Amino acid sequence: MFKVKKMTTMAMLIALSVILIYTIRFPIIPSAPFLEYEPADIPIIIGALIYGTVNGLILTVVASFIQALTVSSASGWIGFVMHVLSTGTLVLVSSTIYHRIRSFKGLVIGLILSCFAMTLVMVPTNLFFTVKFLGVPYEAVKSMLIPAIIPFNLLKSIINSVAIGFVYKGIRVVIKEKSHNMTIKHNV
């Protein structure tokens, strides 16, 4: 029964991620309006914190694939790969640290370090994929790093991390409690 509950919850987190990217999207760096904030990483990271890093990476790949086929279809497989790398970095760092230091302090440390890690990963990712596959000149991408790409990734990850910090404990309790109640009802 637990596997069904876990799979159902993970599917709901993916669905929520896709809904969030559809409904909340806006530019946060005026000089680069094509860089849009969206909170789609929040449910994915919450899933990783609850179910572990490997499951978080599975959530990342599935949500990124659905987003690449729907709302982000214009960026194609490049957008898919870049999204997996950015969200995957957040998931990997935050959930690994949180699962080693299971406390609010571990959550905060994991989220802070994941923000910096994602921002660092997106620098070479943009320099490679945007230049090689999207045809943007290297100098143009390089000139956008400090005024747009780095601040965008840092701001996006910080906003999402702060939101996670506020909602994680309550959501974790609800998910774990429902799982426990389903197990009890099933065993009776």
From TrEMBL:
Gene3D superfamilies: 1.10.1760.20. It is a multi-pass membrane protein. InterPro entries: ECF_trnsprt_substrate-spec (IPR024529), RibU (IPR025720). The keyword Transmembrane helix applies. Pfam families: ECF_trnsprt. It is found in: Cell membrane. The keyword Cell membrane applies. One of its GO terms (cellular component) is plasma membrane. GO terms for molecular function: riboflavin transmembrane transporter activity. Keywords: Cell membrane, Membrane, Transmembrane, Transmembrane helix, Transport. The chain crosses the membrane at residues 6-24, 44-68, 106-129, 149-168. Its main location: membrane. Probably a riboflavin-binding protein that interacts with the energy-coupling factor (ECF) ABC-transporter complex. Belongs to the prokaryotic riboflavin transporter (P-RFT) (TC 2.A.87) family. This is Riboflavin transporter.
